[in-house]
Each structure stands twice: as structure tokens, then as C-alpha cells.
Amino acid sequence: MPSISYSSTGDTPFQQLLGHNEQILKNWTKLEQSFYQDGELDGDLKEQVRRTLAFGNGCKYCQAKGKAVMDQKDSKISLAVGFAELFLNHRSSINQATFDVLRQEFSETEIAELCSFVCFTTASQMFGAIMDLQPE
């Protein structure tokens, strides 16, 4: 049972919690769709980053799909997952050298997308964690 009751607005339990304020739900969902339907980054890369963040951010609902696949042969995915772990555990150490490493695999457009995806996903997962949202 989550920390507050579900609203009647929204398609998923997460959305039903946000649905207490329909404007926030509408805009949150629109931004989420933009991350998953648009952008330069591969969907599998985003999924592995999302999974990494889920365990660091403590959202049980988000952890339901499992941990990130650690045996990555794709160097972009490995670097993105490593960046997500750095963000979770040592975000104060993210500096210019971090971005220099990211530039070895990513364009600046991709770096901006990765950083905004990490921040948005963290906000979503922190919401799920604070609301004690559990997997169905």
C-alpha cells in the first residue's frame, strides 16, 4: 500500500499517484514519453541506466524488472551505466574530467540527454520510493 491513496487518474500505479494533480501528471508523462520516444540515445542504453538508478534510488516498483546487465559488450552502455553509478554514489565528484571521458563515446547532444535522463529518472524513482510504491 503506497503512502497515499491512488487517484482515479492515470494508467499505471505511478501515474495514479501523480494523478492527484492532473496537470503534473500530464506534463510528467509528456516528458517521460519524450525521453523514451525521442532523442539520440539507444533504448537499451536508457533501460540499463534506468535499472542501475532503480537500485541506487531505492524504488521497489522500478526494481521489478531487475538489475542492469553487467556484462556489456557495448562501450556506450558500459560508460552510461558507469556514469549512472557515479551519479548515485559520488555525484559531487562529477567534474570536467568526467565529461572528457563521456566525450570519448558520446556527442554533446547525447551527453545532455544522458544527464537529463539520469536526473529525470532519479526524480521519478525518488517519488516512487517516498510514496512506497511497490511492484504489482
TrEMBL record:
InterPro entries: AhpD-like. This is Carboxymuconolactone decarboxylase family protein.
